[in-house]
Write a structure and sequence with these properties.
There is one protein chain. The chain is mostly beta strands. It has three helices and 33 strands. The strands form eight sheets. A seven-stranded mixed sheet has the order 1-2-33-29-28-27-26. A four-stranded antiparallel sheet has the order 3-32-31-30, with no helix packed on it. The chain has a four-stranded antiparallel sheet with strand order 4-5-6-7, with no helix packed on it. The longest helix has 7 residues. The chain is globular. The two termini are 34 Å apart. The relative contact order is 0.15.
Length: 414
Protein backbone atom coordinates (compact mmCIF):
# COMPACT_ATOMS: atom_id res chain seq x y z
CA UNK A 1 0.00 0.00 0.00
CA UNK A 2 1.36 3.39 -0.94
CA UNK A 3 1.45 6.17 1.63
CA UNK A 4 -1.08 8.21 -0.30
CA UNK A 5 -4.55 7.60 -1.57
CA UNK A 6 -5.50 7.83 -5.20
CA UNK A 7 -7.29 6.06 -7.97
CA UNK A 8 -5.61 3.24 -9.86
CA UNK A 9 -2.47 4.02 -11.83
CA UNK A 10 -2.94 5.78 -15.14
CA UNK A 11 -1.36 4.24 -18.24
CA UNK A 12 -1.30 7.10 -20.69
CA UNK A 13 1.58 5.85 -22.77
CA UNK A 14 5.16 7.05 -23.00
CA UNK A 15 5.70 10.71 -23.70
CA UNK A 16 9.47 10.78 -23.25
CA UNK A 17 11.84 9.09 -25.62
CA UNK A 18 14.65 7.05 -24.13
CA UNK A 19 17.91 6.57 -25.99
CA UNK A 20 19.34 3.06 -26.09
CA UNK A 21 22.98 2.70 -25.14
CA UNK A 22 25.12 0.26 -27.12
CA UNK A 23 26.72 -2.62 -25.29
CA UNK A 24 30.13 -1.22 -26.21
CA UNK A 25 29.52 1.60 -23.76
CA UNK A 26 28.80 -0.74 -20.87
CA UNK A 27 31.11 -0.28 -17.90
CA UNK A 28 31.56 -2.23 -14.72
CA UNK A 29 32.01 -0.82 -11.24
CA UNK A 30 34.35 -2.44 -8.78
CA UNK A 31 32.89 -4.75 -6.20
CA UNK A 32 32.58 -3.41 -2.68
CA UNK A 33 31.31 -4.76 0.58
CA UNK A 34 29.47 -3.42 3.59
CA UNK A 35 29.81 -4.40 7.21
CA UNK A 36 26.02 -4.64 7.51
CA UNK A 37 23.67 -7.35 6.36
CA UNK A 38 22.84 -5.30 3.27
CA UNK A 39 25.28 -5.32 0.38
CA UNK A 40 26.74 -2.47 -1.59
CA UNK A 41 25.72 -3.72 -5.00
CA UNK A 42 28.25 -2.47 -7.50
CA UNK A 43 28.12 -3.54 -11.11
CA UNK A 44 29.88 -6.82 -10.43
CA UNK A 45 26.92 -7.79 -8.22
CA UNK A 46 24.16 -5.89 -9.88
CA UNK A 47 24.96 -6.44 -13.52
CA UNK A 48 26.43 -3.87 -15.83
CA UNK A 49 25.80 -0.15 -15.81
CA UNK A 50 24.86 1.25 -19.19
CA UNK A 51 25.75 4.94 -19.51
CA UNK A 52 26.43 7.47 -22.18
CA UNK A 53 30.00 8.51 -22.74
CA UNK A 54 29.73 11.59 -20.49
CA UNK A 55 29.27 9.39 -17.36
CA UNK A 56 27.52 12.19 -15.48
CA UNK A 57 25.20 9.72 -13.74
CA UNK A 58 26.29 6.63 -11.88
CA UNK A 59 24.51 3.93 -9.92
CA UNK A 60 26.63 3.64 -6.77
CA UNK A 61 24.86 1.02 -4.70
CA UNK A 62 21.71 -0.91 -3.92
CA UNK A 63 20.62 -1.40 -0.29
CA UNK A 64 18.60 -4.58 0.04
CA UNK A 65 17.21 -6.85 2.79
CA UNK A 66 14.30 -4.61 3.78
CA UNK A 67 11.36 -6.59 5.15
CA UNK A 68 9.00 -5.18 2.57
CA UNK A 69 8.30 -2.10 0.48
CA UNK A 70 10.27 1.03 1.42
CA UNK A 71 7.78 3.92 1.75
CA UNK A 72 10.09 6.59 3.21
CA UNK A 73 13.71 7.75 3.17
CA UNK A 74 15.45 10.82 4.59
CA UNK A 75 19.08 11.98 4.68
CA UNK A 76 20.88 14.73 6.57
CA UNK A 77 24.41 14.49 5.13
CA UNK A 78 25.75 12.15 7.82
CA UNK A 79 23.04 9.49 8.01
CA UNK A 80 20.38 7.95 5.81
CA UNK A 81 17.12 6.76 7.36
CA UNK A 82 14.78 4.25 5.73
CA UNK A 83 11.55 2.58 6.78
CA UNK A 84 9.88 -0.65 5.72
CA UNK A 85 6.80 -2.69 6.60
CA UNK A 86 7.86 -3.08 10.21
CA UNK A 87 7.94 -0.32 12.82
CA UNK A 88 11.76 -0.16 12.76
CA UNK A 89 13.77 2.61 11.12
CA UNK A 90 17.11 1.57 9.65
CA UNK A 91 20.09 3.93 9.95
CA UNK A 92 22.90 4.00 7.39
CA UNK A 93 26.23 5.79 7.85
CA UNK A 94 27.14 8.14 5.00
CA UNK A 95 29.03 7.98 2.74
CA UNK A 96 30.00 4.37 3.50
CA UNK A 97 26.35 3.21 3.48
CA UNK A 98 27.06 0.73 6.27
CA UNK A 99 24.10 0.03 8.53
CA UNK A 100 24.79 1.49 11.97
CA UNK A 101 21.55 0.99 13.88
CA UNK A 102 17.81 0.45 14.07
CA UNK A 103 15.13 1.98 16.22
CA UNK A 104 11.36 2.28 16.35
CA UNK A 105 8.13 1.95 18.26
CA UNK A 106 4.41 2.37 17.74
CA UNK A 107 1.95 0.41 15.68
CA UNK A 108 2.01 0.09 11.92
CA UNK A 109 4.66 1.03 9.37
CA UNK A 110 6.37 4.42 9.21
CA UNK A 111 4.95 6.50 6.34
CA UNK A 112 7.19 9.59 6.54
CA UNK A 113 10.55 10.58 8.07
CA UNK A 114 11.84 14.10 8.79
CA UNK A 115 15.37 14.83 10.04
CA UNK A 116 16.30 18.12 11.70
CA UNK A 117 19.79 18.15 13.18
CA UNK A 118 19.95 15.46 15.87
CA UNK A 119 16.16 15.08 15.97
CA UNK A 120 14.26 12.54 13.87
CA UNK A 121 10.47 12.69 13.41
CA UNK A 122 8.64 9.54 12.26
CA UNK A 123 5.01 9.51 11.11
CA UNK A 124 3.18 6.25 11.67
CA UNK A 125 0.13 4.61 10.21
CA UNK A 126 -1.22 4.52 13.78
CA UNK A 127 -1.91 8.28 13.42
CA UNK A 128 0.92 9.38 15.73
CA UNK A 129 4.32 11.06 15.38
CA UNK A 130 7.33 9.77 17.32
CA UNK A 131 10.22 12.11 18.11
CA UNK A 132 13.72 10.67 18.52
CA UNK A 133 17.02 12.18 19.64
CA UNK A 134 20.22 10.87 18.06
CA UNK A 135 23.15 10.50 20.43
CA UNK A 136 26.15 8.33 21.27
CA UNK A 137 26.04 5.44 23.73
CA UNK A 138 28.71 4.79 26.35
CA UNK A 139 30.30 2.37 23.89
CA UNK A 140 30.46 5.07 21.22
CA UNK A 141 27.72 3.64 18.98
CA UNK A 142 24.88 5.63 17.44
CA UNK A 143 21.60 5.26 19.34
CA UNK A 144 18.21 6.98 19.15
CA UNK A 145 16.20 7.82 22.27
CA UNK A 146 12.45 8.37 22.17
CA UNK A 147 11.72 11.82 23.64
CA UNK A 148 8.06 12.34 22.74
CA UNK A 149 5.00 10.94 20.99
CA UNK A 150 2.65 13.45 19.39
CA UNK A 151 0.16 14.40 20.57
CA UNK A 152 1.80 14.30 23.99
CA UNK A 153 -0.02 12.95 27.03
CA UNK A 154 0.08 16.41 28.61
CA UNK A 155 -1.56 17.96 25.54
CA UNK A 156 -4.15 15.18 25.44
CA UNK A 157 -5.15 15.55 29.11
CA UNK A 158 -5.37 19.32 28.77
CA UNK A 159 -7.81 19.11 25.85
CA UNK A 160 -9.88 16.01 26.59
CA UNK A 161 -12.07 17.58 29.29
CA UNK A 162 -13.82 20.29 27.32
CA UNK A 163 -16.40 19.24 24.71
CA UNK A 164 -15.45 22.17 22.48
CA UNK A 165 -12.12 20.46 21.75
CA UNK A 166 -13.85 17.58 19.95
CA UNK A 167 -14.57 17.70 16.23
CA UNK A 168 -16.76 15.53 14.02
CA UNK A 169 -14.56 13.17 12.01
CA UNK A 170 -17.11 10.61 10.85
CA UNK A 171 -20.79 10.02 11.29
CA UNK A 172 -21.51 9.39 14.98
CA UNK A 173 -17.82 9.72 15.80
CA UNK A 174 -15.86 12.63 17.30
CA UNK A 175 -12.19 13.06 18.13
CA UNK A 176 -9.92 15.64 19.76
CA UNK A 177 -8.81 18.28 17.28
CA UNK A 178 -5.16 17.64 18.18
CA UNK A 179 -5.35 14.02 16.99
CA UNK A 180 -5.02 12.67 13.48
CA UNK A 181 -7.64 9.98 12.86
CA UNK A 182 -6.01 8.34 9.83
CA UNK A 183 -2.51 7.56 8.57
CA UNK A 184 -0.04 10.47 8.55
CA UNK A 185 1.33 10.67 5.02
CA UNK A 186 3.78 13.58 5.13
CA UNK A 187 5.94 15.67 7.48
CA UNK A 188 7.53 19.04 6.68
CA UNK A 189 9.69 21.53 8.54
CA UNK A 190 8.39 25.06 9.00
CA UNK A 191 10.34 28.24 8.44
CA UNK A 192 13.08 28.94 11.04
CA UNK A 193 12.60 25.35 12.32
CA UNK A 194 10.14 26.47 14.99
CA UNK A 195 7.27 24.19 13.93
CA UNK A 196 6.64 21.06 11.88
CA UNK A 197 3.63 20.28 9.69
CA UNK A 198 1.89 16.93 9.37
CA UNK A 199 -0.53 15.96 6.61
CA UNK A 200 -2.89 13.02 6.86
CA UNK A 201 -5.37 10.84 5.05
CA UNK A 202 -7.95 12.37 7.43
CA UNK A 203 -7.97 15.40 5.05
CA UNK A 204 -6.25 17.74 7.55
CA UNK A 205 -2.85 19.20 8.24
CA UNK A 206 -1.66 20.09 11.71
CA UNK A 207 1.04 22.39 13.06
CA UNK A 208 3.25 21.29 15.99
CA UNK A 209 5.41 23.69 18.04
CA UNK A 210 8.85 22.21 18.60
CA UNK A 211 9.61 23.99 21.87
CA UNK A 212 7.01 21.93 23.77
CA UNK A 213 5.65 19.57 21.04
CA UNK A 214 2.21 21.10 21.38
CA UNK A 215 -0.33 21.00 18.56
CA UNK A 216 -1.15 24.65 17.90
CA UNK A 217 -3.32 24.39 14.79
CA UNK A 218 -5.44 21.94 12.79
CA UNK A 219 -6.89 22.76 9.38
CA UNK A 220 -9.52 20.85 7.41
CA UNK A 221 -7.60 21.28 4.17
CA UNK A 222 -9.18 19.06 1.49
CA UNK A 223 -12.14 16.90 0.55
CA UNK A 224 -9.91 13.81 0.36
CA UNK A 225 -6.60 12.54 1.71
CA UNK A 226 -3.64 14.92 2.00
CA UNK A 227 -0.78 13.23 0.12
CA UNK A 228 1.92 15.93 0.09
CA UNK A 229 2.89 19.17 1.83
CA UNK A 230 5.77 21.59 1.29
CA UNK A 231 6.68 24.88 2.97
CA UNK A 232 8.27 27.74 1.04
CA UNK A 233 10.92 30.19 2.21
CA UNK A 234 8.25 32.90 2.06
CA UNK A 235 6.11 30.91 4.56
CA UNK A 236 3.51 29.83 1.99
CA UNK A 237 2.32 26.27 2.64
CA UNK A 238 1.26 24.03 -0.25
CA UNK A 239 -0.88 20.92 0.23
CA UNK A 240 -1.77 18.31 -2.41
CA UNK A 241 -4.64 15.88 -2.20
CA UNK A 242 -6.41 12.92 -3.73
CA UNK A 243 -9.23 15.39 -4.49
CA UNK A 244 -7.10 16.52 -7.50
CA UNK A 245 -6.33 19.96 -6.09
CA UNK A 246 -3.37 21.84 -4.65
CA UNK A 247 -4.07 24.51 -2.06
CA UNK A 248 -1.91 27.45 -1.05
CA UNK A 249 -1.99 28.61 2.58
CA UNK A 250 -0.47 31.49 4.52
CA UNK A 251 -0.56 32.41 8.18
CA UNK A 252 -0.84 36.14 8.79
CA UNK A 253 0.63 37.59 11.96
CA UNK A 254 -2.75 38.89 13.09
CA UNK A 255 -4.50 35.50 12.69
CA UNK A 256 -4.22 32.31 14.68
CA UNK A 257 -4.80 29.98 11.73
CA UNK A 258 -3.59 29.61 8.18
CA UNK A 259 -5.72 31.27 5.51
CA UNK A 260 -6.51 29.66 2.17
CA UNK A 261 -4.91 31.86 -0.49
CA UNK A 262 -5.38 29.94 -3.71
CA UNK A 263 -6.59 26.61 -5.12
CA UNK A 264 -4.66 25.16 -8.08
CA UNK A 265 -6.46 22.79 -10.41
CA UNK A 266 -4.92 21.01 -13.39
CA UNK A 267 -4.48 17.33 -12.64
CA UNK A 268 -7.06 14.80 -13.82
CA UNK A 269 -6.36 12.40 -10.95
CA UNK A 270 -4.97 12.37 -7.44
CA UNK A 271 -2.04 14.71 -6.75
CA UNK A 272 0.62 12.58 -5.06
CA UNK A 273 3.77 14.70 -4.75
CA UNK A 274 5.05 18.27 -4.52
CA UNK A 275 8.45 19.93 -4.85
CA UNK A 276 9.39 23.59 -4.53
CA UNK A 277 12.31 25.54 -6.01
CA UNK A 278 14.76 26.97 -3.49
CA UNK A 279 13.47 30.52 -3.93
CA UNK A 280 9.82 29.44 -3.72
CA UNK A 281 8.94 30.86 -7.13
CA UNK A 282 8.18 27.54 -8.86
CA UNK A 283 6.06 24.64 -7.65
CA UNK A 284 6.08 21.16 -9.21
CA UNK A 285 3.22 18.69 -8.72
CA UNK A 286 3.08 15.04 -9.74
CA UNK A 287 -0.13 13.08 -10.11
CA UNK A 288 -1.70 9.75 -10.94
CA UNK A 289 -2.31 11.11 -14.45
CA UNK A 290 1.46 10.57 -15.04
CA UNK A 291 2.04 14.30 -15.55
CA UNK A 292 4.25 16.79 -13.71
CA UNK A 293 2.73 20.27 -13.76
CA UNK A 294 4.90 23.37 -13.36
CA UNK A 295 3.30 26.25 -11.45
CA UNK A 296 4.96 29.68 -11.42
CA UNK A 297 4.25 32.74 -9.34
CA UNK A 298 3.08 35.79 -11.20
CA UNK A 299 6.00 38.21 -11.29
CA UNK A 300 3.72 41.16 -10.62
CA UNK A 301 1.54 39.89 -7.77
CA UNK A 302 2.48 36.28 -6.98
CA UNK A 303 5.54 36.97 -4.86
CA UNK A 304 3.44 38.48 -2.08
CA UNK A 305 -0.02 36.99 -2.60
CA UNK A 306 0.79 33.38 -3.43
CA UNK A 307 -1.05 33.52 -6.75
CA UNK A 308 0.35 30.93 -9.17
CA UNK A 309 -0.46 29.85 -12.70
CA UNK A 310 0.19 26.68 -14.65
CA UNK A 311 3.04 27.31 -17.08
CA UNK A 312 4.09 23.89 -18.38
CA UNK A 313 3.42 20.17 -18.21
CA UNK A 314 6.34 17.75 -18.14
CA UNK A 315 5.51 14.46 -19.81
CA UNK A 316 7.65 11.36 -19.82
CA UNK A 317 6.48 8.94 -17.15
CA UNK A 318 4.12 6.23 -18.33
CA UNK A 319 2.35 5.71 -14.99
CA UNK A 320 1.60 7.66 -11.80
CA UNK A 321 4.20 10.09 -10.48
CA UNK A 322 4.65 9.05 -6.85
CA UNK A 323 7.42 11.32 -5.54
CA UNK A 324 9.33 14.52 -6.35
CA UNK A 325 12.36 16.26 -4.87
CA UNK A 326 14.84 18.97 -5.76
CA UNK A 327 18.56 18.21 -6.08
CA UNK A 328 20.19 21.60 -6.44
CA UNK A 329 18.77 23.01 -9.67
CA UNK A 330 17.48 19.62 -10.82
CA UNK A 331 13.99 18.19 -10.41
CA UNK A 332 13.89 14.47 -9.62
CA UNK A 333 10.74 12.39 -10.13
CA UNK A 334 9.91 8.79 -9.24
CA UNK A 335 7.07 6.84 -10.76
CA UNK A 336 5.01 3.68 -10.71
CA UNK A 337 6.62 2.90 -14.07
CA UNK A 338 9.72 1.88 -12.02
CA UNK A 339 11.90 4.72 -13.30
CA UNK A 340 13.47 7.89 -11.91
CA UNK A 341 13.76 10.91 -14.19
CA UNK A 342 16.12 13.86 -13.85
CA UNK A 343 14.79 17.15 -15.24
CA UNK A 344 16.47 20.46 -15.89
CA UNK A 345 14.01 23.17 -14.78
CA UNK A 346 13.97 26.34 -16.81
CA UNK A 347 12.05 29.57 -16.95
CA UNK A 348 12.19 29.58 -20.74
CA UNK A 349 9.68 26.82 -21.45
CA UNK A 350 12.33 24.25 -22.37
CA UNK A 351 12.52 21.77 -19.51
CA UNK A 352 14.61 18.80 -20.58
CA UNK A 353 14.62 15.25 -19.27
CA UNK A 354 18.34 14.81 -18.73
CA UNK A 355 18.29 11.17 -17.64
CA UNK A 356 16.09 8.17 -17.07
CA UNK A 357 17.47 6.07 -14.20
CA UNK A 358 16.34 2.48 -14.43
CA UNK A 359 16.88 -0.70 -12.47
CA UNK A 360 14.08 -0.91 -9.93
CA UNK A 361 11.64 -3.79 -10.37
CA UNK A 362 8.83 -2.02 -8.54
CA UNK A 363 7.32 1.49 -8.30
CA UNK A 364 9.64 4.19 -6.95
CA UNK A 365 7.88 5.50 -3.85
CA UNK A 366 10.28 7.98 -2.22
CA UNK A 367 13.36 10.02 -3.13
CA UNK A 368 15.70 12.25 -1.17
CA UNK A 369 18.94 13.96 -2.18
CA UNK A 370 22.11 15.21 -0.53
CA UNK A 371 24.91 17.33 -1.96
CA UNK A 372 28.47 16.10 -2.44
CA UNK A 373 31.91 17.66 -2.83
CA UNK A 374 32.10 16.39 -6.41
CA UNK A 375 29.87 19.01 -8.06
CA UNK A 376 26.87 16.78 -7.81
CA UNK A 377 24.14 15.24 -5.71
CA UNK A 378 23.53 11.75 -4.38
CA UNK A 379 20.00 10.43 -4.84
CA UNK A 380 18.46 7.80 -2.57
CA UNK A 381 15.56 6.17 -4.40
CA UNK A 382 13.26 3.87 -2.39
CA UNK A 383 11.01 1.37 -4.11
CA UNK A 384 8.28 -1.14 -3.49
CA UNK A 385 10.77 -3.79 -4.66
CA UNK A 386 12.23 -3.71 -1.10
CA UNK A 387 15.41 -1.86 -2.08
CA UNK A 388 17.03 1.56 -2.15
CA UNK A 389 19.18 2.53 -5.12
CA UNK A 390 21.88 5.15 -4.66
CA UNK A 391 22.75 7.34 -7.65
CA UNK A 392 25.24 10.14 -8.21
CA UNK A 393 24.22 12.91 -10.64
CA UNK A 394 26.37 15.76 -11.87
CA UNK A 395 25.19 19.33 -11.33
CA UNK A 396 26.89 20.74 -14.42
CA UNK A 397 24.91 21.38 -17.61
CA UNK A 398 26.69 18.93 -19.86
CA UNK A 399 23.53 17.84 -21.67
CA UNK A 400 21.19 19.62 -24.00
CA UNK A 401 17.65 18.59 -24.79
CA UNK A 402 18.88 16.81 -27.89
CA UNK A 403 21.44 14.80 -25.91
CA UNK A 404 19.35 13.68 -22.94
CA UNK A 405 20.95 10.58 -21.45
CA UNK A 406 19.29 7.36 -20.41
CA UNK A 407 20.88 5.40 -17.59
CA UNK A 408 19.94 1.83 -16.95
CA UNK A 409 21.14 -0.25 -14.00
CA UNK A 410 20.17 -3.79 -14.93
CA UNK A 411 21.01 -7.28 -13.84
CA UNK A 412 22.65 -9.27 -16.63
CA UNK A 413 22.90 -12.98 -16.03
CA UNK A 414 26.30 -14.29 -17.06
Amino acid sequence: MFSFRSSSFSSMGSFGEERKVPNSQTSSLSERSLSSRSSWCSSSLEGKLQLQSELVHRCLATLRDHLGLVPAVAADGEFLYSSSLGKSIRVWQLPSLSECGRFGCGEGPVKAILVCGETVFCAHQDHKISVWKRTLSAQGTIIHILVATLPTLKDYLKNCVSKKNYVQVRRHHKSLWIQHVDAISVLAMGKNKLVIYSGSWDKTFKVWRLSDFKCIESMKAHDDAVNALVVGPDEFVYTASADRTIKVWLKHDYKKEHTLINTLEGHNCSVNALALSSDGSTLYSGGSDSAIIVWSKDVCIGTTTGQMRMTRILKGHRLSVLCLCMAGNRLISGSADKTVRVWRPSTENNEACLAVLQGHTGPVKAICASSTLLSGHVLYCASLDKSIKVWWICDEDEHSTEHASSCRCTEILE
